[in-house]
Write a structure and sequence with these properties.
This protein is α+β, with helices and mostly antiparallel strands and 478 residues long. Helix content is 23%, strand content 12%. The strands form 6 sheets. The protein has a 4-stranded antiparallel sheet, with no helix packed on it. The two termini are 42 Å apart. GO terms for molecular function: RNA binding.
Length: 478
């Protein structure tokens, strides 16, 4: 018998199914006959010529239309279901390439449902000052890759050293370096303007900040004398340095030169690490000169090389940069946006500059090595870290103040400072802390200023989580 257009099916979890064959499988089969309901579990698959769609949906409602030949899925959020909290509010239409026979059929049709963007996600783990940062790639994997690389190179002719290891610039990354510099300047100027209209508070004793008219009420202060204050924050007005964490690094005249010794740590200038990365990638700043080679180096040993003879080459012609560099606006000349529409446009531009700076810096870090200390936030732009013994992290006496250099990730170069997301501008309540989400402070400022929420930040902001109105309602949530 064929299913009519009005037939609907209530979908439940596979724990409630009575069929042991269905309950024991990781996927869920759909058994159809003329007078039976169609039951799905936490995962559903569709065999045959159907498409593969997202998975782990909560309670769904399915309707079949014989004339149009498709299934309609509707998802209803349920506070008591973890799966529905993750993937709530999804409406799917699946075209079918087959007809259901008129007689009773016991074919197993399965439907796979997946989701590219999970609704809820946890923040990166907080590491205390006594813990060492994990390696981006485990040492075992690095050694295995090195052995495999040596095995493949055995008996092969020696290849020339590619840039930037040869001392030359990667030509295709020079425009990216200029874009990162301009995006950073635009981000700083726009954040200064947004600070004129958005209240941002910073704790006097720790590094927590909050975007809102009143600081959050959570007792999470880790600063000095926190036991006396019982974890309460002491809020003050925030500055641009509280939003964009300053990460400085030594400026290298020659990025392939000798390592900076401990005695020269005060004679070498320190500049923002992102600016130093852009300089090494091709940005020319007159106040920070750097050595540019036009011929690849001649490698003598593992750490020894000599520069090639460039006397026969013609004199270099100074090139005008394709992209002119922007300049930061002084604080005295900052003007606040005059209307809400102008504030929203400024917030959208700020979000684009934030993503452009992070995306461009990530591309540069793939070619130009960046090092970070595993014990402290010290960052060095170059193939090997400096020798300055200025590490003051936990048990630095055992290392004589030397840094434990390892490969850096993007969050080491541009640390994201997370803040609590304020839904609908309502003040946060201490008892409902588990229902609130978090986002980087730049994103939270732009969202409160009127910008759309980017997709990559929605999981941690928990936008689809229903927030109870009072404590009694929160205690009823399972």
């Amino acid at each position: 018998m064929a299913l009519s257009s009005g037939v609907t099916a209530q979908i439940s979890h596979f724990q409630r199914l009575n069929n042991p064959k269905i309950a024991s499988s990781s996927s869920l089969c759909c058994w159809m006959d003329c007078h039976s309901y169609v039951s799905f579990g936490t995962k559903a698959f569709l065999h045959g010529k159907g498409r593969v769609l997202p998975t782990n949906l909560g309670p769904l409602r399915v309707s079949y239309n014989r004339r149009l030949e498709f299934l309609k899925f509707k998802s209803y959020p349920n506070l008591s279901s973890d799966d529905s909290l993750k993937y709530g509010g999804i409406r799917l239409e699946l075209p079918l390439q087959f007809r259901i026979p008129s007689k009773n059929c016991h074919k197993c049709h399965s439907l796979v449902i997946q989701s590219n963007y999970p609704q809820n996600a946890d923040l990166p783990r907080y590491y205390s000052k006594k813990e060492k940062k994990p390696f981006p790639i485990p040492i075992v994997e690095l050694r295995r890759a090195a052995r495999e690389r040596l095995k493949n190179m055995k008996g092969q002719p020696r290849r020339p050293i590619p840039p930037p290891k040869s001392g030359l610039l990667v030509k295709r990354l020079i425009p990216v370096a200029y874009d990162v510099m301009n995006a950073r300047t635009t981000l700083i100027n726009n954040l200064k303007k947004l600070l004129k209209v958005l209240p941002v508070h910073a704790c006097k004793w720790c590094n927590e900040i909050h975007v809102g008219h009143v600081g959050h009420p959570f007792k999470s202060c880790r600063g000095p004398q926190t036991s006396i204050r019982k974890g309460d924050h002491e809020w003050t007005n925030a500055f641009i340095e509280d939003i964009l964490v300053p990460v400085d690094a030594f400026h290298l005249f020659d990025r392939l030169g000798r390592r900076i010794p401990h005695e020269e740590r005060f004679s070498i200038p320190r500049i923002p690490a992102v600016v130093e990365l852009c300089i090494q990638a091709g940005v020319d700043l007159p106040e920070f000169p750097t050595k540019r080679r036009r011929k690849p180096i001649i490698r003598i040993g593992k750490s020894e090389f000599i520069d090639a003879d460039e006397s026969e080459l013609p004199d270099p012609v100074p090139e005008v940069p394709k992209t002119p560099l922007l300049t930061e606006i002084p604080d005295s000349e900052i003007e606040a946006p005059s209307s809400a529409e102008e504030t929203a446009l400024l917030a959208e531009e700020t979000l684009k500059a934030w993503d452009k700076m992070k995306g461009g810096a990530k591309k540069l870090m793939r070619m130009y090595p960046v090092r970070v200390c595993g014990y402290c936030p010290e960052v060095h732009i170059g193939p090997s870290g400096h020798k300055a013994q200025n590490c003051g992290a936990h048990k630095h006496q055992q290392r004589n103040g030397q840094h434990g250099w390892q490969a850096a990730v993007l969050n080491d170069l541009i640390p994201p400072r997370y803040v609590w997301h304020v839904p609908n501008g309502q003040p946060l309540q201490r008892e409902l802390k588990n229902f609130y989400g978090q986002a980087p402070v730049v994103v939270e400022m732009c969202v409160q200023a009127g910008a759309a929420v980017p997709e990559q930040y929605k999981p941690t902001m928990r936008l689809d989580v229903g927030i109870p109105t009072d404590i009694r309602e929160a205690e009823m949530v399972v």
